[in-house]
Each structure stands twice: as structure tokens, then as C-alpha cells.
Amino acid sequence: MPPVDLAAPLEDLSGAWCNSDIVVTSLLEAISFVTPELEDFVVRTVAEGLATQPECDLRQRCRAFLREESSHSRLHRKFNSLLHEYLGTTPPGLGLVRALLRGARRYLSLSSRLLIVAALEHFAAVLSRVYLRQESGCVFRSASAGEMFARHAREELAHRSVVYDLSFRHKAAGRMRRAACVLVILLAALVFLWLAVPWILHRKTGTGLSAAAFSLCHDLAKNRRYIKTQAPLDQLFTFARNDFHPDRSIEPVASDLSE
Ligand SMILES: [Fe+2]
Ligand SMILES: [Fe+2]
Q1: How many whole angstroms separate alpha carbon 30 and alpha carbon 130?
Q2: Ligand (nearest to CA of 70)
Q3: 177-218 pLDDT, tens digit each
Q4: Which whole number is the average pLDDT over 26-54?
Q5: CA atoms within 13 A on the CB side of 80
Q6: Dihedrals φ, ψ of 253, to 5°?
Q7: Of 64, 68, 160, 240, which one has the greatest count of Cβ atoms within 10 A?
Q8: Which own/partner pairs from 172-177 qualify as long-range (CB within 8 Å, at least 24 positions apart)?
Q9: What is the mean pLDDT of the chain?
Q10: What's the gap in Å between 106 CA and the centre of ligand 2?
Q11: pTM here?
């Protein structure tokens, strides 16, 4: 896949730049804002976990993983700085995510943090799978933005088992802990999106915050059947199964198989 040119200017990001749909655009912007925060936690935790690993195949995979995640963060930070120009500031909910990650760094052991990172990577792979299934139907007004999201999704899917294998070397967690981890991440993600998406809608359209929240609820209700068929809730909780492994539980997309 050709690299995304960091030096190239990104196109106009005002209004609805994905599918001419302001809700989908606001959702992608919220995801982009939270990405560097999560990836910073991921990179630091994996680098710490890697320090005690002898030279082996997993160590090489972790190094490649760290390079990819650092590159994702750089791209999203650049993209977010452009979004910042349109939105004026960053969305609410980011402070909550930062506080949770700070608490995890301060109070949790390395093996617990590796479990959280393995679960975050599982979320990233499952959502990337959903995104890539719909990619052919997506129309981006900004080609750079489309390229960035597609590249990120493909790389998340390709490196889906690296942190799971590393966390397993440190300490294998039981089913209850893994299920609790998925539940906590899911709740935190829903709270973040509920705070960030209506706010982005409000800033992008100039409508009041309550009107933006109402319009989001209306959109969700209108598309509830489609959302129900696409929401990968059961896939997220496969993380807690005894026989779970990312390579077996998440299928690659057709284009990855042909590479
Ligand atoms: Fe990433
Ligand atoms: Fe990742």
C-alpha cells in the first residue's frame, strides 16, 4: 500500500466530508481525536513489556508494531490539527479518556495494562474489519482522509495478534477478567462517543447542542436495523473465550488474502 504523504496538505475538512453524511463524518472525527491518546498508551505499554523479552520472533513483530502505531499517531495528530481549525477546540470526553489512561498507568501492573492493550487491539481489529467491509461504498471528499482511515484499518487488522501474544507471555488472564476488560472499554467508548459526536455535530453545523443530540438520536433510530446488523458486539466478547486467538477469531479481508 502506498504510504500516506505527511507533507501533502489535506483537503477541505469542513462539513460532511465522508458519504456527504454529517453523522458519519462526526463519528470518524471523534475516532480520530481519541486515536493518538489510545495509541500513546499502547506504544508505552508494549515498549515496557518488550524490555523483558529475549531476542525472538515476537520481539521483531513488536518492534514493527511499535513503528506502525507511532506512524498512525503522527498521521492522526496532523489530521486532528486540521480538524481543530474547523472546530475551534478538541471535543469533550477526551479529558475522561486521558484520566482513565493516566489512572491505568499509575495504579495497574504491567500485566494488567498489557491485557487492556490486547483488548484495545481486539476492538481496533473488529472495528477495522467492519470498516473495510464497507470501504467500497464510502465516498470521501478528502482523498487523504480516506487513504489514512483505510491504511490504518488494514494495518490494525494485520497486526491484530501481536499484543495478545505478548500479553500471554507475561500472564494469561482468566475469562472473567477478559470479559470485564471488554465491558469497561465498551462503556468508556460509548460515554466518549456520546459526549464527542453531538458536540462535533454542533460545531460543524452551527445548530445548538441539544438539537445536535436530538438529530443524532433521530439518525440512530432511523438506521437502527442497519446498525443492529453491523454492530460487532458478539465479536468483541469473543475476547473472553477460552479458545480465543485474534488470528482465528477475526478473518482478514479479501484484499489482504491476495497480498
Ligand atoms: Fe493504530
Ligand atoms: Fe493496533
Answers
A1: 17
A2: 1
A3: 999 999 999 999 999 999 999 999 999 998 888 888 888 888
A4: 94
A5: 18
A6: -80, 160
A7: 160
A8: 173/111, 173/115, 175/240, 175/241, 175/242, 176/240, 177/115
A9: 89
A10: 22
A11: 0.89
Q: Compute the distance between CA of residue 125 and CA of residue 159 in angstroms, rounded to an integer.
A: 8
Cα angle vertex 172, ends 112, 57, to 5°?
A: 100
What's the grid cell of residue 242? 477460552
Residue 121 CA, ligand 1 centroid: distance in Å = 8
Report the helix count and the strand count for the chain, using DSSP H and E. 12, 0
C-alpha cell at 16: 460532511
Q: How far apart are CA 58 and CA 66, in angstroms?
A: 12
How close is the Cα of 109 to the center of ligand 1, in Å? 23
Q: How far is CA 9 from CA 99, 142, 200, in A?
A: 32, 10, 22
- Rounded to the nearest whole angstrom, what is the distance from the C-alpha of residue 72 to the centroid of ligand 1? 5
* 220, 75, 64, 95: CA torsion to nearest 10: -60
Query: What are 67's three cell numbers?
Result: 513503528
Place of cell 506502525: 68
How far, in Å, from the CA of 92 to the mean position of ligand 1?
Answer: 22
Measure 156 CA to ligand 1 centroid, in angstroms: 6
Distance CA 204, CA 20 (A): 13
- Residue 251 predicted with pLDDT over 90: no
Mean pLDDT of 80-90: 90
